[in-house]
Amino acid sequence: MRITALAGGVGGARFLRGLLHHLDSRPPAAGDGPHEVIVIGNTADDVTLHGLRICPDLDTVMYTLGGGIHPEQGWGRAGETFGVAAELEAYGAEPQWFTLGDRDIATHLVRTRMLGLGYPLSAVTEALCARWQPGVRLLPMSDDPIETHVVIDDPDADPAPDGSPAVKAVHFQEWWVRLHAAAPARQILAVGIDQAKPAPGVLDAIAGADVVVLPPSNPVVSIGTILAVPGIRDAIRATRAPVVGVSPIIGGAPVRGMADACLTAIGVETSAAAVADLYADFLGGWLVAPGDHGSVMPDDVALRAVPLLMTDLEATAAIAGAALDLAQELAGESAGR
Ligand code: GDP
Ligand code: CA
């Protein structure tokens, strides 16, 4: 079975760890080849700080599946130390709202050096994964630089002549990490996305999949940006594979993080159904939490209610199993038609 998943950071990575655990416990049937999982990772969170190119979502997937993640935090390295960050602070080097751990910095050094030598991000990611052996093929959504920026009010600048408040654009990381998404987003822009191309292997992974899975990643700044790379959404609409997703929203709120602030910015309600609606042009099946079972889904989306809290590996594997079961049902139906 070839499974292609789209993933952001913590939500995506945790789900994928459960998916691999589920697949491990269900070896392929005799005659079938081994399971293959390809992950298309979000790169719109990427940022350059202190001269280092940082890909938070790719690294979260790589560390989580490779056994190097900080377990409680869900991002960053286990056993991390912050010697470099303390030295940077002593120099007053900005920005200080984004703390880089020493172990993590090694990853960014290798990446930045390879990019500087001209390697595309996909090759760099493959090289980093050679160490971590994540058990999936991890592809960046694009080799072209894409950065999510957020337009917020700028209280320090004079209002425009018509009296409307001055605005400024900040990098997504500044909005998320420094401002905790508390400054209302007037607009969320993926800068560079219109000119970007899918990374090598991405479109083939979608076209050649038996199942396409959307983990419970942020629908705007993780899944939304992946889908906005020209060609990716069309490939997902065209694939013969069933597309199933897991709601990141339970009972009208994100499970962790501030996805509600992102949904509000694009004028979408924070609900499992409204997120499904964002994917209505290709979604076949949608897993929601039991309390959201009454949600009104877009036409032709098969709804299943199962516990959706990724509290531990077993619970997460059960969610992944439910997603694959639903995909199999949908594949059976379309074969029978
Ligand atoms: P990020 O890039 O680190 O923000 O991570 P993602 O975009 O991959 O995932 C963030 C989303 O994961 C948030 O919107 C959360 O609501 C969702 N999430 C986190 N934990 C859980 C969980 O246990 N269950 C479900 N269903 N969603 C979760
Ligand atoms: Ca992210």
From TrEMBL:
The keyword Magnesium applies. GO terms for molecular function: transferase activity. Pfam families: CofD. It comes from the Bacteria. The keyword Magnesium applies. CDD domains: CofD_like. Keywords: Magnesium, Transferase. PANTHER family: 2-PHOSPHO-L-LACTATE TRANSFERASE. This is 2-phospho-L-lactate transferase.
